[in-house]
Input
Amino acid sequence: MPNSVFALVSAELGAAADPRAAAMAGALAARYPDAARAVLFYGSCLREANLDGLMLDFYLIVSDYTAAYGRSWLAEANRLIPPNVFPFEHRGLIAKYAILSEADFARLCGCEADNVSIWARFAQPSRLLWAADDAARQRVVSAVAMAAPTLLSLARPMAGEDADSLSLWRTGFDLTYNAELRAEKAGRSLSIVDADPDRYRHFGEAALADGLPPLLSPDQAARRWRRLQRRGKFLSVVRLAKASFTYAGGIDYLAWKINRHAGTAITIRPWQRRWPLLGAVTLLPQLFRRGAIR
Output
């Protein structure tokens, strides 16, 4: 079926990307020779012609966490609170990459996920820049192909019976943005769809034609979104705390990202760099007051 979500996702994941990003993905996979299964490139940099000075975003999919880390506390941290996030540099480019196992990636793209972070991101465009073999490639395509139907099925009861595919997307992204601590300005969730309406219309119509996962009633959907929002914001804080141990310079990256997306001028004090966990937590109240995150 050439217009099925699976076919559309397969084509989009295989589309051309910046050769420097592809080289970076290969170098990243080479750091985990016993575990790497696939490397996905996603986020705003996917649309940029010049990657210099930008922070690229990757997901490294691994066979399992023990293979990636050995018998390290990092394996247990990744298992309990996925994903782990690390910085990476290659030939003048900088990036951050998150690590998920193949099993967790598939689970978190589906309707049973307890948070929105993976299916909300991979309902948007991404590129599969490296795969260990054809089986790994097919597993990634199958997982990503669940992301858009998950978002649309959960958005549909909230958008109303007469909503078209673009309205479903807009409703879905608006709800997912409220289910995480976000540094973007108000309206960012809607601009995602408006930046490429043909893509979202095509994917939305294909998902509707394929048949969405079982629909919830409006009351059931509202309760589910409330749980996702509570869980998502809790996990955002927990991941921030975890990143203070796994991500060198993580608090400076946090400030950079907030300033870039929210137009603020957050500065990090020396004591916050010395104790990044405490520093990150103490930033939260002032960021809420300024409206830098929501």
